[in-house]
Fold this protein.
Amino acid sequence: MNLLKTGFRIGPVASLMKKQFGYSSATLQKSVFGLNFSNPVGLGAGFDKNALYLTELQALGFGFVEIGTVTPRPQPGNDKPRLFRLPADKALINRMGFNNDGVFEIKKRLSQRKLNEQNLQNTLIVGGNIGKNKITPNENAWKDYGVCFNELFDCVDYFVVNVSSPNTPGLRELQEKDSLRKILSHLQNANQAKNKPKPLLLKIAPDLTKEQLDDIVDLSFEIQLSGLVAANTTIGRENLSEKSKVKSQKIGLGGLSGRPVKEKASSIVQYLSEQTEKTIPIIASGGIFTGEDAKEKMDAGASLVQVWTGFIYEGPSIVKNICTYLAGE
């Protein structure tokens, strides 16, 4: 990404990259929760954590990019190494731990970008994925989410509340109904007090029980969420080959993503879509590598899709390949 950023400072290189990997088609434009997406393929949170590569990612064709997870204070994340490949299964294990520059530095970066590009055509939708600092106790988590929401409000197009990463101790406990209600109610009250409220979404884990998913559905209606992101990485190690199982045991803790979570993520998308009667848009994430994978998620009920692990394995042509397939070209 740093090499790409350097290359983009040279005009011909930037033009060549856009021509090679960019994608534009009116047939794939979508309006979801009041936002106009140039295409339905986005990059999930955790890749461009600090909003450093938005211009380059837009040139690679992404219809939207989710930055973060952003926390109020900067934090280094977990000890390295913390990102591992399982190539036999086209999977990753990560235990990053919300490493980011902190909301105030990221706000400055996003504000400068808006200033630089206010006279240019900029169709990239930017989502803000927000979380809590590791040292913040769960009973005060709502305050951290509130700080990130207020600071980033003028800089992003939509918000995603992340309570589902397995790499911050105790974070997933916030997915319990009462804890979640406190956070989401606080954010939605602040949101509705604004002149133009922003779409507010919730990102969930793929490891929730049916009862927990039902609680999520109930809260989505109660809080009037704009959408759901399904799903984050899994703490499970199902569907791994023997080779990857051995490797994963050596790696230890972390969230698994990629091919092995594809079916689980699709089933959750389908269940949420059915339970909400397709009234709450879903951004699908988990095991998307090809156009067929993206269509599977959309057939299950997703309005938009996000790649991450697929981007690592398929490379910069992934968006163009998926969009070409979806457009029937």
